[in-house]
Amino acid sequence: MESKSCKGDSLRPAVPCKHSVEKKTMTNPTTVIEIYPDTTEVNDYYLWSIFNFVYLNFCCLGFIALAYSLKVRDKKLLNDLNGAVEDAKTARLFNITSSALATFCIILIFIFLRYPLTDY
């Protein structure tokens, strides 16, 4: 059997065509994919903190919740997922506490306005 060769082999040394050469060894290409944690699922309670700071700032708890909400946003930008989750829990705690205490005080004010202490 004759080996296939390119045109003009009489002028050049015998070099097989690039189409007829098969690679004997193929290496598996490797791809590195960097997966960053999904920080969009960490809730920062930012709007709730602003509402508590502006309207229900009971003993400055709304301000503290706002500060922790901003820390959550900063840690999300730095891809510190564990720190962001911890600060989100703290911001949620201060928001719940501020909302509950302020709501309780507002209810007490309405009760005392409706039934003054002079009636007892």
Automatic annotation (TrEMBL):
The keyword ATP-binding does not apply. Keywords: Membrane, Transmembrane, Transmembrane helix. It comes from the Eukaryota. One of its GO terms (cellular component) is membrane. Coiled coil: none annotated. Its main location: membrane. Pfam families: CD225. It is found in: Membrane. InterPro entries: CD225/Dispanin_fam, IFITM_antiviral_protein. The keyword Transmembrane helix applies. The chain crosses the membrane at residues 45-70, 91-113. PANTHER family: INTERFERON INDUCIBLE TRANSMEMBRANE PROTEIN (PTHR13999), INTERFERON-INDUCED TRANSMEMBRANE PROTEIN 10 (PTHR13999:SF9). Belongs to the CD225/Dispanin family. This is Interferon-induced transmembrane protein 10. It comes from Grus japonensis.
